[in-house]
Structure formats: C-alpha cells, structure tokens
Amino acid sequence: MTEHTPAGRRAAVLGSPIDHSLSPVLHRAAYRALGLDTWSYGRFEVDEQALPGFVADLGSDWAGLSLTMPLKRAVIPLLDEIGDTAASVGAVNTVTFAADGRRLGDNTDVPGMVEALRERGVTRVAGAAVLGAGATASSALAALAQICDGEVAAYVRSPERAAEMRGWGERLGVRVRTGSWEEAARAFEAPLVIATTPAGATDALAAAVPGAPGTLFDVLYEPWPTALAAAWAARGGEVVGGLDLLVHQAVLQVEAMTGIAPAPLKQMRAAGQAALTSR
Predict the structure, then answer these.
(1) pLDDT given at position 162
(2) CA separation for the pair 83, 86 (Å, rounded)
(3) Distance CA 206, CA 239 (A)
(4) β-pair type (94-97, 62-67)
(5) What residues contact residue 81 under an 8 Å CB cut-off, 6+ apart?
(6) What is the secondary structure of the chain as a DSSP string?
(7) CA–CA separation, 122 and 119 (whole Å)
(8) What is the reported pLDDT for 11?
(9) What positions carry a catalytic annotation?
(10) Are 258 and 4 in contact (CB under 8 A)?
(11) Would you put residue 168 in left (φ > 0), alpha (ψ -120 to 50) or beta?
C-alpha cells in the first residue's frame, strides 16, 4: 500500500440528475476502510452550464471529482491534460488535481468494464454486441477493443447514432457493424452483450432471450434486476450488472484520488449493495 499524507481532502460526484448516485456510498466506504478519517466525499447537482464556474471555485483541498452525465464530455475543455483512455473515447469521468494545480482527466469506466468482466471469467470473446449509443457505448467499445477478437454489432435507434458508433469503432480499432433497434434481439446471438441503454429501454427485449445465452453486461444498477437481466439469468446466462461496473470504476477513482492502492473493493461493494437493498 502506498502512502498518502495530506489530510482534510475533499472529493465529490457531479452530474444532473445526481440524487440517485451511489458514488458517495462507495467512496466513503473506501475512506473508512483506509482510515482516511479527514477525507470527505460529496454530491452536487451540476449541469453543463454550471460546470465551469464550479470547477473554477475549487480550492487546494480538493483531491478529485467523479463525473456522470451530462458532464463527461463537457469537462474536457476545462482540463489541462487527459489520459489516453479518456482521449480515445472522448469522455472523462474522473478528474484529479495535481500538486501544481493542473487538472487531469481520465476515464475509469473502460478499465472498470474490463475488470468487471474479468472478475466473472470473461477475458476473451470471439464477438460481441452493444445495445445503445452514447458515452457509455463508446466506453464499451473501448473495453471490447481489449478483449474481443471479432466483430461488434451495435444496435441503435437512428442512422446518426449508427454513424457515430462506426466512427468510434474506426478510432478504437474495433470492427463495428450497426443494426436498427427493431432488430436488437439479434444481439443475443453474440457470446457477450453489453446493454448501455437507460432504464426500461430493453424491457421489451426480455421475451426474446434465447435458451442458454452467453454473458450479459447490463450497465444499469437501479432498478435491478432489469427485466432483461432477470430473463437472462432465468435462462442460465451469466449476468454482470451496473453495480459491478460502478464498484470497479470507483476503485480506480479512489486509487487515483488518494494515491493509495489497492482500494478496498470488498468493502465498497458491500456498501453499495446495502445501499441498493435499503432503497
């Protein structure tokens, strides 16, 4: 475990809406487990218009920020430097502040996805499918660039979204074939399906889950299980959920913000699960 000396540090998650975020639960659990008694982690309702002012007002006691929608791309112009992973997907979900005041952006969603899948034994797949488009879908493509040997089928709702996903595929070195949302059930032929859509968007697809499906990674954690995840599990498929992603990406955020590694994965997951159960 590496050592970190500054006391009284602050961090927070920003987004809009933000009330549902489990990030405070996970990060505070990490601070307790690591003995960082003077660290605090908050939650702030911040939209794209308010973000520049919020960041400009932060003092030297701030260690980092977690960013959720709609800020993952809006924050980029406010940063001094972004990491390779964040640059590859055009999305930052983690900001840390260097000792000299520089604002550094990174993306822990991509390695978080890879680690969540690895934890369930999914390290290589011959092909995959993605449901949806947007920032989370581009992160899914970046994760698949590391573990998928073949083509990725992306099912989206508009020609514009389809073109966007093919563009991300070209940038990330992933062979992407797009299909319309009306044929999204064809995704279930793939050994790995990553659902990146909002709550309720895949409910109508639950009845189409075949017998003995492969692995479903549904990035939602509330409500849970989704209708699709429940149907998938009932048919004997492996299901990786949004809490798995949230915990793994938060582990990497805690390590980046505190300088302490490894972060306490077990305690963070237990806290997140308890919080969801109590809702």
Answers:
(1) 97
(2) 5
(3) 13
(4) antiparallel
(5) 102, 103, 104, 105
(6) -------S-EEEEEESS-TT--HHHHHHHHHHHHT-TT-EEEEEE--TTTHHHHHHT--TTEEEEEE-TT-TTTTGGG-SEE-HHHHHHT---EEEE-TTS-EEEE--HHHHHHHHHHHTT---BS-EEEE--SHHHHHHHHHHHHHB-S-EEEEESSHHHHHHHHHHHHHHT--EEEEEGGGGGGGGGSSEEEE-PPTTTTGGGGGGPPSS--EEEE---SSSS-HHHHHHHHTT-EEE-HHHHHHHHHHHHHHHHH--SS--HHHHHHHHHHHHHH-
(7) 7
(8) 98
(9) 72
(10) yes
(11) alpha
Q: What tokens does 197 get?
A: 């859509």
Q: What parts of the chain have a pLDDT lower than 50?
A: 1-5
What pLDDT score was predicted for residue 7? 60
pLDDT recorded at residue 279: 87
pLDDT of amino acid 224: 93
Q: What gap in Å lies between CA 215 and CA 236, rounded to an integer?
A: 10
The residue count of the chain comes to 279
Confidence (pLDDT) at 27: 98
Classify burial at 98, counting beta carbons within 10 Å of its beta carbon; exposed 0-12, middle 13-18, buried 19 or more.
Answer: exposed
Residue in 4, 49, 50, 52 with CA at minimum distance from that of residue 30: 4
Question: What is the reported pLDDT for 5?
Answer: 42
